[in-house]
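Lab meeting notes turned into a lecture example. A postdoc, R.K., suggested we walk through two folding results consecutively so the class can see how the record format repeats. The first protein's sequence and structure tokens come next.
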Amino acid sequence: MTHYVHVPLPYDFSALEPAIDARTMEIHHDGHLGAYVRNLNALIEKYDLQNLPPRAMDFVQAFHRLAADVPDRDRLRFNLGGVANHEFFFSILGKKSAAPGAPLASAIDENFGTFVSFQNLFQKSAIDLMGSGWTWLAVDLASTIAQPFPRLFICNTSNHDNPLMRDVFASPVMPILCLDMWEHAYYLRHQNRKTDYLAAFWCVVDWDRVDTNYASVLHS
């Protein structure tokens, strides 16, 4: 039986300051993500789910099939998304790079006009999100075949839904960047000032990691 591990942050709680304060990171990672991991594992045990993928993100992708008969399917989906989305979010934060590499930068320019235009559209999508959820930059997998630049698009998901969940999009997509728009991600420092949180986010995006995510899509 698969049990998911509460993966440690790849950096100290204070590593993203002043953009994201250490106390927010501690509560976010240890408190919120920790609770989702515990809840997910409890549901896995309760329903005796077998042969699950070792990565939560892979379980998300196959959720419609592997959890088809679970009575408490919505609760399982919520906590699974809480684990997978948070792990993905924490993985793309850091202070290693200030801008995307040439392949992704060219794709952003092709799809959005300029990098600044992309940022503005991403921010608008995040601000327009009603309630709690996530804002994503994703690749349309169908567009990677015989195309010089795949189609990139910005989207929101509610609660802890993930673009990989089969019922979120009709065609297969792959996220390469995301932003947590739950209040617990920003309220301790920024309260209701979402635009301040968005400005801080751009200061700590690890574009090296996002570049890696993008390259893995192209070569998969």
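The second example is placed directly after the first for contrast:
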Amino acid sequence: MNAQVIRDWFQGLAPRERVLVVAAAILAAVAVVYAGVVEPVYGARARAAESVARHRQLLADIEGVARRFGPQSAQPAASGSADSLVVVVDRSTREASLSAFLKRNQPEGAAAIRLRFENVPFDQLLEWLAAAQSADGLRATAATFDPSGEPGRVNSNIVLSRAGG
């Protein structure tokens, strides 16, 4: 159909029919604009607001964990400073009931040790790390945490070194 055929058809309509056709065309144009522009923008806004809410909750959870462990000092403690890192880690993981989850410990020189924990309870591991820092003067210089498949448990690689060393 070309424009002339449409114009002839439109001119052949009664005046009241022309008003109805124009009104229907305007409604169709508004519906197309709403469905193609307005609705996607509102949908993206709602998804963004939901994402912000999730991230705020995650931040609140992280801040709660940070408050639970309190400020951390980088100063090594006097106790255990003469022991090797292997001995310190072995003793502290046994005391924290984590030795069953410790699958590998590999010294990296005299001042660092690389640890591999598998299927370890995350909260228990964080408590042990905080205790190792405050009681033994150790600090995590690198750490990775991957979900192990069970809720609340992770697989983790951690590199510990003596604070200040």
